[in-house]
Amino acid sequence: MINGLIDKLKTNRDLSDDELREIIDSGDYDGELRAAADEVRRAHYGDKVFLRGLIEFTNYCKNNCYYCGIRAGNPTAERYRLTKEQIMECCEEGYALGYRTFVLQGGEDPYFTDDILCDIVAAIRKKYPDCAITLSIGEKPRESYQRYFDAGANRFLLRHETANPAHYAKLHPDNMSSENRKRCLRDLKEIGYQVGSGFMVGSPYQTTDDLIADLRFLQELQPDMIGIGPYITHAATPFRDMPSGSAELTLRMLSILRLMFPYALLPATTALGTITADGREQGLKAGGNVVMPNLSPVSVRKKYDLYENKICTGEESAQCRGCLERRVKSAGYRVVTDRGDVRRP
Ligand code: 5AD
Ligand code: FES
After folding, report:
1. Which listed CATH number (3.30.1330.200, 1.10.760.10, 3.30.1330.10, 3.20.20.70) goes with 30-336?
2. How far is ligand 2, taken at its centre, from the CA of residue 326, in Å?
3. 237: pLDDT strictly greater than 80
4. What pLDDT score does 161 carry?
């Protein structure tokens, strides 16, 4: 145990690789780390927790990521697509529940061409001029990202998953690369999107050095949002025998992120709430300031099956909203309904 390490991280918003390794590999700092993260979070955002209404609009995907339950190669996945009308209904319901950010998330589904996506984005933009529209639809050519932006999208979520190209290659087939993922993220930033990135904690073959590489990549990218959650095993994937990541290490990384990126939007993710019952509450206490309640129609929720035992698949949107409000309150924070744009120093 090295005295003063957490203070140093808090003051400098940075540490050497060796110092980060010390904190990541040891549980000894967790108490102090979490307290410091909460202090910094309260200094920047008070007790506010922002809501992002998540609409999972397709689970078709042309990719074959080895960890993901909706990979193309999973024949047991029951596929669905929402229509434009269904997506608009989700937004309507979300708006009434107080959401001012809609996140359209889906697999990389060729059915949703740029024309179709732009038509949907433009319709939401027209009906809800006061709302942020976030896309989370994977890797595209720069021109496509530009078209969605011009149609009215303002934010984009694309996790880099792991910054180490060799580790990335162990999680994905040969037709995907860490380089292209990073190219996408840089394009998105240059176009003017508010960008969210992030990684899984405890993914197969991940080392402490990989986690440090993730932090270094994020320092370079300077994203507005950073989403992390534990890797969770899915039986219908090639990683069926790989153990899930832990809540403990996810929370530790979340607190480190809060100290390194005081301004950032850090969600307490659904995966964290899945791996342990009060995971999201703990995530908020560890520095998180965003929750992403599910707005998808209940009829399709179980089918958006990225990992096993995903929570929030049986509840109506209004129930999810109420449930989260209670959880946020019980953790000592307060749900707010503004758009929650990032506040950079
Ligand atoms: N466990 C945890 N997270 C997963 N994701 C995909 N599959 C899994 C899994 N098995 C995450 C990825 C992706 C996000 C939408 O969900 O990080 O970017
Ligand atoms: Fe969705 Fe609790 S947050 S049911």
Report:
1. 3.20.20.70
2. 10
3. yes
4. 98
